[in-house]
Amino acid sequence: MVFDFGLSLGDELRSSRLTAQELRIGTPGYMAPEYLGEGVVTPRCDLYALGVVLYELCAGELPFPGKPVQVFREQLSRDPPALATRSAAPGWLCRAVDALVQRDPEARPASAAEAVASLRGP
Length: 122
What we know:
The protein is globular. The chain is built from six helices and no strands. The longest helix is centred in the middle third of the chain and has 17 residues, at 43-59. It is mainly α.
């Protein structure tokens, strides 16, 4: 599974072979809310990260720009602004991306195949 499209470990983490149970490693903004909150990792986390990358490509910015703590708070408390409010991308693409970045994993596509089908457009 892909946890994060921008994972980077600093020297302090690279030199340690121990991990803390509550430690969440990843790049703010790309980590799925369920991973941030409960540490739950499923294939839908990957779909969330894909959605964030597509959102950023279409809008020119992350769904929740800002400092890491602010980004985490936003990701855990609400869905991102609709892509159509930040991009001139076609409606079908905005709807597909919005589905991928839903806070509730059950509201995201159930599989990569379902996500691909929605991204193919009309």
